[in-house]
């Protein structure tokens, strides 16, 4: 059911790879709520994914861009504002990649060149994106910029390795640039710390299925699905959250506030009996 929360609003949505992607769900929800937007992803990811199908469904223009390249981001924002007829109301940063995780390197044997790539793709790209938006004066006043994070920024999850540092940096960038853009343009910047989600990227982390089940048992509401995260993004793009900024917003069914749950206790007791 649509409430037209984004009627007349325009923006950029990055990171929609396939129908499992949170960004894919955000695009569908934004379209249903009346928004128009440009879709973007890295050229390689676009060849692997199904973004053209989503673009047809939502009537969206696709502008390929490597988010680590300032030049390509400049082209993205200039094309988006031209195509959409003016400044932007919202931007979604849904970008993350770790070569170390892909190569299954444990934390003690990280390849540091890979580590730098992880930080550049997963965190510094967020700074670059906002810096380009600032220089081009691409955002409307009271606009909203959102990035997707994970609680490994604050806690240790061994198989998440260097992505933990990337998410911590992402959240720090959101706070610092949120202050700057808030003072300059009343633009708000937030991150959403989402439950483990069965996306193509998420399931690539070692031991994902076991941790997904553990988080589900730990959360009184259960793991938040991708569709619910998309709903949360829509509220942050809307005018209903105009004074929410510089926050890391936990969208995890209560996982982050639960010490231990009855379900986990029962599972441990069964294992030890």
TrEMBL record:
Enzyme Commission code: 1.3.1.9
Pathway assignment: Lipid metabolism; fatty acid biosynthesis
Biological processes, Gene Ontology terms: fatty acid biosynthetic process
Catalytic residues of the enzyme: 150, 160
Binding site for NAD(+): 15, 21-22, 95, 167
Keywords associated with the record: Fatty acid biosynthesis, Fatty acid metabolism, Lipid biosynthesis, Lipid metabolism, NAD, Oxidoreductase
InterPro entries assigned: Enoyl-ACP_Rdtase_NADH (IPR014358), NAD(P)-bd_dom_sf (IPR036291), SDR_fam (IPR002347)
Listed GO MF terms: enoyl-[acyl-carrier-protein] reductase (NADH) activity
Catalysis performed (reactions): a 2,3-saturated acyl-[ACP] + NAD(+) = a (2E)-enoyl-[ACP] + NADH + H(+)
Membrane keyword on record: no
Pfam annotation, one family: adh_short_C2
Family as reported in the entry's similarity comment: Belongs to the short-chain dehydrogenases/reductases (SDR) family. FabI subfamily.
Entry protein name: Enoyl-[acyl-carrier-protein] reductase [NADH]
């Amino acid at each position: 059911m649509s409430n037209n929360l984004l009627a007349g609003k325009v923006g950029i949505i990055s990171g929609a790879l396939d129908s499992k992607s949170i960004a894919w769900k955000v695009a569908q929800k934004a379209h249903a709520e009346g928004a128009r937007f440009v879709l973007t992803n890295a050229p390689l990811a676009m060849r692997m994914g199904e973004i053209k199908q989503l673009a047809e469904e939502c009537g969206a223009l696709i502008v390929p861009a490597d988010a680590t390249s300032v030049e390509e981001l400049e082209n993205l924002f200039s094309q988006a504002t031209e195509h959409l007829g003016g400044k932007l109301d919202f931007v979604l940063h849904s970008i993350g990649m770790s070569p170390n995780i892909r190569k299954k390197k444990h934390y003690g044997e990280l390849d540091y060149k890979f580590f730098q790539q992880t930080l550049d793709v997963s965190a510094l790209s967020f700074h670059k994106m906002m810096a380009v938006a600032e220089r081009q004066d691409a955002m409307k006043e009271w606009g909203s910029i959102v990035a997707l994070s994970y609680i490994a920024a604050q806690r240790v999850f061994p198989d998440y390795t260097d992505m933990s540092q990337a998410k911590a940096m992402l959240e720090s960038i959101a706070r610092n640039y949120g202050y700057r853009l808030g003072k300059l343009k009343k633009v708000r910047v937030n991150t959403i710390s989402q439950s483990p989600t069965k996306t193509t990227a998420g399931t690539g982390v070692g031991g994902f299925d076991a941790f997904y089940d553990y988080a589900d048992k730990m959360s009184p509401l259960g793991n938040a699905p991708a569709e619910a995260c998309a709903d949360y993004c829509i509220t942050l793009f809307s005018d209903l959250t105009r004074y929410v900024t510089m926050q890391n917003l936990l969208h995890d069914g209560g996982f982050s506030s639960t010490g231990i749950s009855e379900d986990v206790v029962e599972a441990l007791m069964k294992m030890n009996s």
